[in-house]
Design brief:
- The protein has one domain (about 15-340).
- The protein has 15 helices and 4 strands.
- The chain has about 350 residues and is mainly α.
- It has a two-stranded parallel ribbon with strand order 1-2.
Length: about 350
């Protein structure tokens, strides 16, 4: 990887020439979008049919297609994600219909997730807007906040962000359990609450039929081998796109959405096959700069303007390394630092920290 530095220029709004480029890619192609949805969903359903048939007849070799089904599940989630932004199709009705149908495969209530994700896009990497449960993988605390904690609070925080728990244990809990509850949903979110209940009702009938037909053991096995790797992969993608070496956090009024898209999101370069399964979501800086761009236009937009080259580029190794590094935001050095580098002071002075160099 080459040397990397954020440009000193601060963007309070999106430059006009960038807006002109973005407008070229913000309009979806209905045929392309329809082909994406039909091909992805049909392929995923075919994998499920083969897995159920194989396990019911003792053909354990069908486990070989489980990774494909998991990849297709991630891609289905990205298509649902695009529908939530209104970018996959040109009409809200079509986006909402497709998004809600995809939610039955991703186990993610569409309307509830859509509302929370919109809040994420309005304030990510803003130190004045933190603490939402739905942002647990993009949030961080500051060195001062960590230093002010008691020993027990520090233990709980380290336990919560431990990679074993956050990456490998929590994802299935989130998708199987947390999304069955309308968490962080104020009383005014009537549609979002209803969406959770209706999604749960549909899933109850779907899984009830599958258990009646194939048995609880096989349904549990198929769900685990497909959804667990997909959930872990999805959480990992979200984590490394927002918490990585070189990311910047700002407070109001310095924070702006476009500026944060360049300094608060990574450009995760994945191999071509993984890029397809992940729906180009690794081009996350462009997505945050213009959420209305459908997944198949993100990379062309990135290549069409030099300003997008300012985003931090991560490869697979960088992504794995970032996901195993617990980081805090140091407001003094304006850098992310490793949790292990923070040393407590008996005199309750600010801790010494070893900042990562931006390379």
């Amino acid at each position: 990887m080459g040397h990397y530095q954020h440009e000193e220029q601060h963007y309070t709004k999106r430059p006009d020439d960038v807006t002109a480029v973005i407008k070229k890619y913000q309009r979806s192609n209905p045929r392309t979008s329809l082909v994406q949805v039909v091909s992805t969903v049909c392929a995923l359903l075919a994998c499920y049919i083969l897995l159920y048939a194989g396990f019911m007849h003792g053909w354990w070799a069908v486990l070989l297609i489980a990774p494909i089904a998991s990849g297709l599940s991630v891609r289905t989630f990205v298509l649902q994600h695009d529908c939530g932004h209104g970018s996959l199709f040109r009409h809200d009705y079509t986006n909402n219909l497709v998004g809600r149908l995809c939610s039955l495969l991703t186990l993610t209530p569409y309307d509830h997730w859509k509302r929370h994700h919109a809040l994420h896009h309005g304030s990510w990497n803003n130190t004045d807007s933190r603490g939402r449960l739905s942002d647990m993988y993009s949030d961080c605390i500051t060195v001062r906040e960590y230093s002010a904690m008691t020993k027990f609070q520090k233990f709980l925080y380290r336990f919560k962000i431990n990679p074993i728990l956050s990456i490998f244990v929590m994802p299935p809990i989130i998708f199987f359990i947390s999304y069955r509850v309308a968490f962080d949903a104020p009383r005014g979110w009537a549609r979002e609450r209803l969406g959770v209940y209706l999604t749960n009702a549909c899933l109850f009938f779907i899984f009830g039929f599958l258990i009646w037909y194939a048995g609880l053991k096989i349904v549990s096995l198929v769900s685990f081998v497909v959804i667990y790797p997909a959930a872990v992969s999805g959480v990992w993608l979200f984590l490394v796109q927002h918490k990585f070496e070189g990311v910047l956090w700002k407070a109001n009024p310095q924070w702006s959405a476009f500026d944060a898209s360049l300094t608060g999101c990574s450009f995760l370069r994945l191999p071509r096959l993984l890029r397809w399964f992940s729906g180009n979501i690794g081009t996350h800086h462009v997505h945050h700069a213009a959420p209305g761009i459908p997944n198949y236009h993100l990379l062309p937009c990135h290549n069409d303007h030099p300003i997008f080259q300012n985003a931090k580029v991560l490869n697979m190794y960088d992504g794995f390394r970032a996901s195993w590094t617990n980081m805090l935001w140091d407001e003094d050095t304006r850098k992310m630092v490793a949790l292990r580098s923070v040393r407590s002071s008996r005199n309750h002075r600010l801790p010494r920290v070893r900042a990562y160099s931006l390379k």
